[in-house]
């Protein structure tokens, strides 16, 4: 990597950035994220049913843990995909890397949807399910980095925060769509039909986006070779140290982010399995939480373009830290719709805002020639280590302690670590935004 930081003697070429991002460009760039988190969200919503189909066991806890373990298997190959597809995006282009990733993940979700049950083909069922998750993990590993780099590079400097915020917003859109599908299926089908084949319908709906997504991505303009505004000349060694620092802080913040995300995505299973509420209320919990997350993600990016990156990371994170335990205590004690929908919705809204500012800050802090690969690799390792284990850990904690507040404990630890890393993040906003934010701040 060090050779990539050799001094450059070429004079910077100044080219005016695009005035705006069209809706088709944003959708084309983020449709892979939409499918990714639709699939991931759908899997967690139907983790109990998938466990019964592929991992039947006399103990329901064992069946659920095997199902969640298969969910986590997809994280094992994420770092491999991040290195392969991320570096490919830095060498060849963002568009071909994003297109390859989308094609592979679509094929994997289709394979999972049509895999016969254990009762039909025996041990082949869980093996095929695990293989599909491994392929999808490889594809997803190379999705987020190139997409984030693409959105940042395609946007004007003063709107990068809002542009990049479509990355986390697309995740929330997908999770909302998955929860909405789950809600509709739970209302329209009997519990027996939902267990038998309802979850397959949800996956097939996601796989149906393949032709549309490939068409959108094939029409995207390339941003890799588009010149950027000149940056101050920095010694190679200092640049390398800065990138290493950004990578270390980014790993901690992304770990915090993914634990927060996957615990909130787990709330449908948590509400059904631990709180014993009705299926429509359980699906509605995640639906409402994800729906407010869409607005929070876009708000975070919009605010980062006006107040700078660090302020929008730090203060909402403090608020989320203070809210976490009281919200979960309210949910566990009351087990009411207002607590599940209102309390979790408010926590998700506040907790999502800081991460849009972080996404653009990290993308800005990485040199363009390694931006896609570095972002993808850091993200993939954070997700693989902490995302793939979040839900099994929470399930295990609830099981061994018998305490329904276990998710709050894990979320608090993760959020506190993320907050400490945010305090050490440099401000990467363009000088005009930093200057405007300084003028607006009280003296």
Automatic annotation (TrEMBL):
One of its GO terms (cellular component) is plasma membrane. Keywords: Cell membrane, Membrane, Symport, Transmembrane, Transmembrane helix, Transport. It is a multi-pass membrane protein. InterPro entries: H+-coupled_symporters, MFS, MFS_dom, MFS_trans_sf, Sugar_transporter_CS. Gene3D superfamilies: MFS general substrate transporter like domains (1.20.1250.20). GO terms for molecular function: symporter activity. Its main location: membrane. It is found in: Cell membrane. Coiled coil: none annotated. Belongs to the major facilitator superfamily. Metabolite:H+ Symporter (MHS) family (TC 2.A.1.6) family. PANTHER family: ALPHA-KETOGLUTARATE PERMEASE, CITRATE-PROTON SYMPORTER. This is MFS transporter. It comes from Bradyrhizobium barranii subsp. apii.
């Amino acid at each position: 990597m060090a050779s990539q930081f050799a001094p450059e003697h070429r004079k910077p070429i100044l080219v005016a950035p695009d005035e705006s991002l069209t809706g088709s460009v944003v959708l084309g760039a983020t449709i892979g994220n939409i499918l990714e988190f639709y699939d991931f969200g759908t899997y967690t919503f139907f983790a109990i049913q998938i466990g019964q189909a592929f991992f039947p066991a006399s103990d329901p806890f064992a069946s659920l843990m095997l199902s969640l373990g298969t969910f986590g298997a997809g994280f094992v190959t994420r770092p491999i995909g991040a290195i392969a597809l991320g570096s490919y995006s830095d060498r060849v282009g963002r568009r071909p890397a994003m297109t390859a990733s989308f094609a592979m993940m679509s094929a994997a979700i289709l394979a999972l949807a049509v895999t016969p049950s254990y009762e039909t083909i025996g041990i082949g069922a869980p093996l095929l399910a695990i293989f599909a998750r491994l392929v999808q993990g490889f594809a997803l590993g190379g999705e987020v980095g190139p997409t984030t780099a693409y959105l940042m590079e395609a946007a004007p400097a003063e709107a990068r925060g809002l542009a990049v915020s479509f990355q986390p917003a697309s995740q929330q859109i997908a999770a909302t769509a998955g929860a909405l599908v789950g809600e509709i299926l739970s209302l329209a089908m009997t519990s027996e039909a939902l267990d038998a084949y309802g979850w397959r319908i949800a996956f097939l709906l996601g796989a149906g986006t393949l032709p549309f997504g490939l068409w959108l991505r094939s029409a995207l303009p390339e941003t890799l070779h588009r010149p950027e505004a000149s940056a101050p000349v920095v010694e190679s060694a200092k640049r390398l140290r800065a990138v290493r620092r950004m990578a270390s802080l980014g790993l901690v913040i992304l770990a915090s982010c993914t634990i927060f995300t996957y615990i909130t995505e787990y709330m449908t299973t948590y509400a059904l399995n631990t709180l014993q509420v009705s299926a429509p209320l359980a699906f509605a919990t995640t639906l409402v939480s994800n729906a407010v997350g869409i607005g929070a993600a876009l708000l975070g990016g919009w605010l980062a373009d006006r107040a700078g990156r660090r302020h929008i990371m730090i203060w909402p994170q403090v608020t989320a830290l203070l809210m976490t335990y009281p919200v979960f205590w309210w949910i566990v004690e009351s087990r009411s719709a207002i607590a599940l929908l209102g309390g979790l919705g408010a926590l998700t809204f506040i907790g999502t805002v800081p991460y849009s500012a972080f996404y653009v800050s990290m993308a800005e802090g990485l040199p363009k020639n390694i931006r896609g690969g570095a972002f993808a690799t850091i993200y993939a390792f954070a997700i693989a280590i902490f995302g793939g284990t979040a839900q099994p850990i929470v399930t295990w904690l609830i099981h061994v302690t018998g305490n329904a507040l276990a998710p709050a404990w894990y979320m608090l630890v993760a959020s506190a670590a993320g907050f400490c890393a945010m305090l050490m993040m440099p401000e990467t906003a363009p000088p005009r935004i930093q200057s405007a934010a300084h003028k607006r701040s009280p003296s």
